[in-house]
Design brief:
Arc Repressor Mutant, subunit A; 60% helix; 3 strands; alpha+beta; 3-stranded antiparallel sheet
């Protein structure tokens, strides 16, 4: 088995919480903080930390606005985030192919 794909996994995305975030955002143009928190069953602080890590990596953008006079924070994948997530998924597929019986 070739270990290279394992060594090339993006550690920013690979963490369970961030993988969940990236997966949800890859399937939607944008999601609110509340939608992400409730879907992933995370605390506000935990979600904020994961979003910040993804934002610092350039994978996620944050928009703040108001809806019905209430603050609304939304998140979306950036083009580089979408590219990184696609590369991550492709690498996982390569790993899976290596482990399938022949």
């Amino acid at each position: 088995m070739n270990p290279t794909p394992f060594l090339n996994l993006d550690r920013v995305i690979h963490e369970k919480g961030r993988l969940g975030l990236m997966s949800l955002l890859a399937a939607s143009p944008e999601l609110s903080f509340t939608e992400l928190r409730d879907t992933l069953h995370m605390t506000d602080g935990n979600l904020t930390t994961h979003i910040r890590t993804l934002q610092e990596a350039g994978y996620v953008s944050i928009a703040k606005s108001f809806q019905n006079n209430r603050p609304l924070t939304t998140c979306a994948l950036t083009p580089s985030g979408r590219k990184a997530f696609t590369a991550y998924i492709n690498l996982l597929e390569e790993i899976i192919q290596q482990t399938k019986p022949r």
